[in-house]
Amino acid sequence: MNPRILAIVSTLLLLAACRQAPTPAEDQAGAAQPGAPAVAVQEEDAPDAAEEEPARPDLPTLEVATIDGGRYDLAEHRGEWVVVNFWATWCSPCLKEMPELSALHTMREHISVVGLAYEEIEVPAMRSFLEAHPVAYPVAIIDVYDPPADFDTPRGLPMTYLIAPDGAVARQFLGPVTARDIEAAIASSGGPSLESLSAAPGPGGA
């Protein structure tokens, strides 16, 4: 082969060999360029799952069938103060507080009530009972063997929860409550005070 041609071929082969293996520095520079492959996140850089915002256990859910054939969903009452009242037809203190709770539900625009009958009773029997003891708020019969998971199993009756407008539990009452008790609890939790409502007639002489 002509010595001149041989020299040219050798030079080309040397140049090709130099470009086959980039240096580590070239690799790093290439990774910094737009369009370069993403660099894997090291374990210490990965977000910690424990730092994610936890679910709020103080926001109970409640979805139950009411005895009038409807459904009650607590989530639909955000923006209101909700009184969740566990009761039973055989509970004398429960029957005593029902008229005041009914008046709260009717006369206070910012308050609504739901009654959860915690006993084994059939719907027709409950309807007959409420004909004799009418209330303005919805009533549902709770399965005593499968009560609402987000509320404590009643240790006694009546048992009442006050739910704030944001859906959180503001207060829990074990034993009978009055309309004044509920309104005082609302005022102490940042709601309307009794004084601000005094101009309007209210339940329980409020």
TrEMBL record:
Q: Where is the composition biased (Acidic residues)?
A: 42-52
Q: Which UniProt keywords apply?
A: Cytochrome c-type biogenesis, Disulfide bond, Redox-active center, Signal
Q: Does the keyword Transcription apply?
A: no
Q: Where in the cell is it found?
A: Cell envelope
For the biological process aspect of GO, one term held by this record is: cytochrome complex assembly
What is the residue range of the signal peptide feature?
1-21
What do the Gene Ontology cellular component annotations say? cell envelope
Keyword RNA-binding among record annotations? no
Ranges of residues in domain Thioredoxin = 53-191
Q: Where is this region: Disordered?
A: 25-59
What InterPro entries does UniProt report for this protein, alphabetically?
Answer: AhpC/TSA, Thioredoxin-like_sf, Thioredoxin_domain, Thioredoxin_ResA/DsbE_sf
Recorded GO molecular functions are: antioxidant activity; oxidoreductase activity
This protein's superkingdom? Answer: Bacteria
**CDD domains for this protein:** TlpA_like_family
- Do you know which Pfam families this protein is assigned to? AhpC-TSA (PF00578)
State where composition is biased (Low complexity). Answer: 28-41
Q: Which PANTHER family match?
A: THIOL:DISULFIDE INTERCHANGE PROTEIN DSBE (PTHR42852:SF6)
| Protein's name according to its UniProt entry | TlpA family protein disulfide reductase
